[in-house]
UniProtKB/TrEMBL annotation:
It is found in: Membrane. One of its GO terms (molecular function) is transmembrane transporter activity. This is MFS general substrate transporter. Residues 1-20 are annotated as: Disordered. Belongs to the major facilitator superfamily. Allantoate permease family. Pfam families: MFS_1. It comes from the Eukaryota. Residues 1-12 have a biased composition (Polar residues). Gene3D superfamilies: MFS general substrate transporter like domains. Keywords: Membrane, Transmembrane, Transmembrane helix, Transport.
Length: 508
C-alpha cells in the first residue's frame, strides 16, 4: 500500500494531474501550472474548453471511425467474395469474426498497464500504424489459417484503442463534461457504419486484378497508417504541455479540473486498489453490461450485411443500406447524451434503458415479421442500432464512478475483457445453417437486451444505496457535501479511490 496514504500525508496538486510526458522539462512545467486556484475566470475557461474540444475530440472521433471500419470490413467483404476467396465453410467465418477479440483479450491487460507508464497518444499512434499495415496484409491472404492469424494480431494491437479514448477524455475533462465528450466520439460508430458502407460500395465498383474484398482491406489499412503518422506528431498529451494553449490557458486548463479530479493518472501501481477493484460489485456489473452489449455488437458488425442480404437485397444495395443504420446510431448517441445532460441528476441508466427499448422492438420484429415484408424487416434492423447509445452511457458511467488511478486501470481492463467476451460469443450465435433467418442469433440479441436492462436497473439501485451510506458518514462527522468545495490542494489526500473519498458521489 502507498506509504503516503497510510500516513495521511498530503501532496501538491501536481501529483493529481496526469503527466504522460517523460523528462524533467514537462514535470517542471506542470509544477508551475498546478498552484491551486479555486476559481477560474469563466470567459477564460470557456475559451480553453473550446480549444480542447477542437484539438482533442477530432483525433478521438476519427480514430474511433477508422477502428470500427477496420473491424467491420470483415462484414462488408463477406458480401463481396471473401468466403469464396478464402474457401470458407462451416463456422470458419464466425471464427474470423471472433479471433479478432481473442487477440484483443490476450493483450488487453498488458496494453492497459503500459498506458499507465507511457504517453498514451504515442502508444495509440504506434499501434494504429501497425494494425493498419496488418489490415493491408489481409488482402494477400489466400487461406483461412493465414487470415485467422492476422485477425488475431489486429485485435492484439487494437486492444489499446477504446481504453486510450477513455483515458484521454478523463485527462482533459471534468466528470460532468465527460459524458457529452464520450457521446461525441461514440457517435462516430454511426458515422463509421455509413462511411464503411459507402467505402465498400465505392470499392466494390473497382474492376482490377484483385477481388473487391482485397481492395477494401488495402484502402482502410492505408488510411489507418496515414492517420497514425499525423496523430503521432500532433495529438497533445496533457494540458500543461499542449503547444496550442497559451501559458494562462494551460494554467486554467489544469486548475479547472480541481484537486479531486479522478482523471489523474499516477504511475505507481497500487495493490490495494487492484484488490478494491476486484471486490467492488460495480466492477462486475460493468463487466456483465459489457458482455450484454457486445454480444449484440459482435453479431451486428460481422453479420449485419448478411442479415440485410438475407432480406433479399443484392450485395451492392446491402452495403448502401448500412448507411441509414449508421445514421440511426449517430442520432441515438447524440440525443442520448444531451438527454441525460438535461435530466435532473442526469439519470444515465434510465436514458440507456430508454434507448435499448427500440432495439429490443427491432429484434422482435426481425424474429416475427414475414420474410415477404422486406421494408418492415429493414426498418426493424435499423432500429436494433439504438442500443449503441447504452454502450456510450456505460463507458461514461465507468469514468464517472471509478476513482483511483490503478483501480480505474483495472476496471477499464476488465470492462474491455467483457467487451471481448461478448464479441467472441456474438458471432457464434449466428449459425450458417440457419441463414438467412439466423433464428439463434436474433434470440441471443433479444436475451442480451433484456439482461442489459436488468443490470442497468441493478447498478442504479446500488449507486443510490452507496450514496446514502456516504451521506450518513458525512453526517456522523458533522459535515455536508458542500464542505468538499472548501478543500484545497494541500488537504486533499492523494489518488483516493471512489470508496475512500467520503465526498465522492456516484452518478447513475
Amino acid at each position: 500500500m502507498d506509504s503516503n496514504m497510510e500516513s495521511g500525508q498530503t501532496k501538491n496538486t501536481t501529483e493529481h494531474v496526469e503527466s504522460l510526458d517523460d523528462g524533467r522539462v514537462a514535470a517542471q512545467k506542470e509544477a508551475q501550472l498546478t498552484a491551486f486556484a479555486p476559481i477560474v475566470d469563466p470567459a477564460l475557461e470557456k475559451r480553453v474548453i473550446r480549444k480542447i474540444d477542437m484539438m482533442i475530440i477530432p483525433f478521438i472521433c476519427i480514430t474511433y471511425l477508422i477502428t470500427y471500419v477496420d473491424k467491420a470490413m470483415l462484414g462488408y467483404s463477406a458480401v463481396f467474395g471473401l468466403k469464396e476467396g478464402l474457401h470458407l465453410h462451416g463456422t470458419q467465418y464466425s471464427w474470423l469474426g471472433s479471433m479478432f477479440y481473442f487477440g484483443y483479450l490476450a493483450f488487453e491487460y498488458p496494453t492497459t498497464f503500459i498506458m499507465q507508464k507511457v504517453p498514451v497518444s504515442k502508444w495509440l499512434s504506434i499501434n494504429l500504424f501497425i494494425w493498419g499495415g496488418i489490415t493491408m496484409a489481409l488482402a494477400g491472404c489466400s487461406s483461412f489459417n493465414s487470415f485467422l492469424a492476422l485477425r488475431f494480431l489486429i485485435g492484439a494491437f487494437e486492444s489499446c484503442s477504446t481504453p486510450a479514448y477513455l483515458l484521454i477524455t478523463a485527462t482533459w475533462y471534468t466528470i460532468e463534461e465527460q459524458p457529452i465528450r464520450i457521446g461525441w466520439w461514440s457517435t462516430f460508430l454511426g458515422v463509421a457504419n455509413s462511411f464503411g458502407g459507402l467505402l465498400a460500395f465505392g470499392v466494390g465498383q473497382i474492376n482490377g486484378s484483385l477481388q473487391s474484398w482485397q481492395y477494401q482491406f488495402i484502402f482502410i489499412g492505408a488510411i489507418s497508417c496515414v492517420w497514425s503518422i499525423f496523430m503521432f506528431f500532433t495529438l497533445a498529451e496533457h494540458p500543461s504541455t499542449a503547444p496550442w494553449l497559451k501559458e494562462e490557458e494551460k494554467k486554467a486548463a489544469v486548475q479547472r479540473l480541481g484537486p479531486r479530479h479522478p482523471g489523474a493518472n499516477h504511475r505507481e501501481i497500487k495493490k490495494y486498489q487492484i484488490i478494491e477493484a476486484l471486490t467492488d460489485p460495480k466492477t462486475w456489473l460493468f463487466f456483465l453490461c459489457g458482455v450484454a452489449t457486445q454480444v449484440v455488437n459482435g453479431a451486428a458488425s460481422n453479420f449485419g450485411s448478411l442479415i440485410i442480404e438475407g432480406f433479399g437485397y443484392s450485395n451492392l444495395v446491402t452495403t448502401l443500406f448500412q448507411i441509414p443504420y449508421g445514421m440511426v446510431i449517430l442520432v441515438s448517441n447524440v440525443s442520448a447524451m444531451y438527454l441525460q445532460r438535461w435530466l435532473p441528476g442526469q439519470k444515465r441508466c434510465f436514458v440507456a434503458i430508454l434507448y435499448i427499448c427500440p432495439a429490443l422492438a427491432g429484434a422482435v420484429g426481425i424474429h416475427t415479421i414475414s420474410r415477404s415484408h422486406k421494408a418492415g424487416l429493414l426498418v426493424c434492423y435499423w432500429l436494433t442500432s439504438t442500443y449503441t447509445a447504452s454502450f456510450a452511457m456505460i463507458m461514461s458511467l465507468i469514468t464517472a464512478n471509478t476513482g483511483g488511478s490503478t483501480k480505474r486501470t483495472v476496471v477499464n481492463a476488465l470492462f474491455f475483457v467483457s467487451y471481448c467476451v461478448g464479441n467472441i460469443v456474438g458471432p457464434f450465435s449466428f449459425k450458417s445453417n440457419e441463414a438467412p433467418t439466423y433464428t439463434s442469433g436474433i434470440v441471443a440479441m433479444l436475451v442480451a437486451y433484456c439482461v442489459e436492462i436488468f443490470l442497468l436497473l441493478a447498478f442504479a439501485g446500488y449507486a443510490m444505496t452507496l450514496n446514502r451510506k456516504k451521506e450518513q458518514v458525512l453526517n456522523s462527522q458533522g459535515m455536508t457535501l458542500e464542505d468538499a468545495d472548501l478543500q484545497t490542494a494541500d488537504n486533499v489526500p492523494v489518488d483516493q479511490t471512489d470508496n475512500q473519498d467520503i465526498f465522492f458521489r456516484y452518478s447513475f
